[in-house]
Amino acid sequence: MAPPPRWTWLACLVLAAATPVVRGAARQPVEGDLEDEDLAKMYACYANYLITEMWNKVVVADWNYANNITDYNKKKSVEATLESQQLDLDVWQNITKYRWTKFEDPVTRRIFEKLSVLGTAILSSEKKTELVNIIANMQENHASGKICPYVRKTNTPEECNLSLEPEIKNILMNSRNYSELLHVWNEWRKVAGKPMKKNYLRYVELLNEAARLNGFQDASGMWQDVYEYEALESNMARLWEQLLPLYQELHAYVRSKLRAIYGPDKVPEDGPIPAHLLGHIHSQDWSGITEITRPYPNKQAIDVTNAMKARNMTVLDMFKMSEEFFTSMGLPPMPKTFWERSVLTKPTDRKIVCHASAWDFFIGKDVRIKQCTQVQMDDLLVVHHEMGHVEYFLKYAKQPVVFRTGANPGFHEANRRYNRSLRGHTEALESSWPAGRQNGGRRNGHQ
Question: Which residues form the active site (predicted)?
Fold first, then answer.
């Protein structure tokens, strides 16, 4: 086996410098009788090297599959994941020989704690293979699904080529034809949801089995464990109760606006809002219907799509603008390889997973974004969100590999909510063109 590269040894030095972490109670830890902490530190360093190399191999295989959905690439992705899970098992068997909860060094103790939950690698070989294939098949089905348009012109199979991104996404955001919206909503679920039902039910069974083998009641317990907060569920319930009155008012307001557009026969005066009218395939983001819900319709909308097109902004310009936003706060610029290896627009020669995502390859500064970007404001906000992930990747690149993730899953996703507040930044597009270009232009929005 080749010796670890220099940066890996630098990561090992972090073991002596990182700060202790405070956490709440958790499941019963899995540990053994060995108490040699110096030996444990050496193993932690060695495991860091092994895991880093393996995670890079997995991410490369997953990237190749997500950017070119073929049976061959799916096979290589599955193989890499299974190989990684075998390494997870090997490392877990070694670290659980130690009485790591008694280690004095908080960083070594933390590394062992992170590695003591085996996850789905605890399943039998047959079930691991089954689970990994199920996930790959569901991803392929979701990425490959296409539907026919609401209005057929030729009645040929070639006409049925509407993908989730960008075609269905754009229809849901821009169409105000109730029947067309209902059509794409239902048809997409027929091709992307219904065929996955059997696989998904089995996926849930296998996840729950893995969770129980790891000492949790079910998969939700295993997922919540990473937040390291015993009262997570009860506090979320309490916060929801506090938020509920405001949400009900917002819900009623949006429902009344939609009722005015589509009529009382389509939108009830009370009760649930028809989900296909909210401008998003999952109804999770209502910004697509802002021109309907805006409380002061005579005021100018905060939507700079037209300004972006008027100044002939390209997709590359959008990413450069986002980079400028982050560097203006003292964060690092994107490395040269980011611009060389990222996929920023939808290719025409192959099937890819279009859902925007940021990728950390765990070796050096190899970070990338995959996004089927269009020149519009909504996508500009997504660009900021994804680049926010990449800034995280770059800032913790020298940490031991098990620390190269958000402190909990909320940290990374919180930057999406923050980026929704970047509308002032994007408004600068309108206010700075062309005169603002002479005095800094795009910087005006994020002072």
Answer: 386 (proton acceptor 2)
